[in-house]
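Q: Two folds, back to back.
A: First:
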Amino acid sequence: MNKKKLTIEERRQRNKNRINTKKINKWNDRLKKVFSILIKFKYLSNKEEKILRYFMFKNNDVMYLKSDLDCLIDALVVNYNYKLKNNYISLNMLSTDSINSLLRNGFVYIDKFIKKELVSKILYEIENNKKIIWKHPNNHGRDDIITWFKPTDDICSLNSNDEIKQVDTNNNPFHTLLNKILLQYLYNDLIQIFKLKSNKTNFEHQLASYSNGANGYSIHRDCSKDESINGGRKLTCIVYLQDESYNPDIDGGQLLIYKDERPIHVEKIAPYGGSLVIFFSGAIDHVVLPYKATNGKKRIAFTTWLS
């Protein structure tokens, strides 16, 4: 039996249908991977999954998935849009634009995150608190001094001028920055979008100082993608503590963010005092440029890693 010979137009339509079928299958595979991540990290219940599936098909809101971490980020974007649309998000410190920037670009820069008065008080504590013990880090490629501490350490509870008598921690600037702003307000915003540990004592906190002539910090990533997915550092949150005299064009010390694009795009961020940078610890390569402030002022950064 001879097959019917197709016209040119019919062949075009047949090929178009085959291509569409392949696209639909590929789309379904991507959806399944996104949903598996959402369910694995307990972002959604099975009932919510059905609702969100319709929402995703309708809005075509999934990007190309390259790895498990990329898949997780894409799932977060979808989940965030779903929660935002249904008024499940209540933000305190961050704006919806900031969250969107973080999810879409892998990082966000927020100017004037904390008030300059608090920056000044923290800088005073850094200069005068004898409990702060600076050390040179063991890892290569960096030229700063650092100190590690926890929210319960003396630095967050003792006044620099009175090392024995307990004082009202509400007046301690480190307590305000760490325990209130970062571990309460900012954490409460981010935990609505990210799967973060509820035990805040496991988070890492570091104060880093660069002096005049420091070579900066060579390109690095705060953890691997596998570590980030499996309970390691998820978000790097850096609050900069320069005084008002800081001038990036003269002093240097900018942060370079390498976005995972082709061609690679580099974002230069000036660490003005009071500003905040958040980025994905396991996905963003970054560099600290050499610091050359001749006025004796140091480049101070307070980093919290949320896991």
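A: Second:
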Amino acid sequence: MRLFTQEILHDPANGKHGDCYRACMASLLGVEPRDIPHFYDGVVVDPVEWLQGVGYHLLRMGWAGSVDELRDYMVAQNPGIPFILSGISSRGNSHAILVNGNTLWDPHPSRDGLEKPYSNGLYEMEFLVAML
């Protein structure tokens, strides 16, 4: 799997919304980030609808444990299933990383990862499921 670094850093004061999610999605799909919409910049493109157009469902679930517990659980129960994990970064904003086995890939150049879950106490996991 090719791991991409995000091309746009989050800078809302200057009207820029980071494209960490797009970098993670490109890694999962095996395509260049430029071939995927920047889902959350300006005109919002619904990732669920876009993915259905390219043959995938987006399965979302919450996780109340730690990132390390989640990684260990997925390695034991679902080896080889990569997914996007979202929560709050050390920079204080919503952020997405890629989890693939023991690898936690943060597409942000800092590679800091996630600091904590969202305010509801959950991290969000997203899996791509091929349409039948």
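Q: And?
A: Helices lie at 20-29, 47-53, 67-77.
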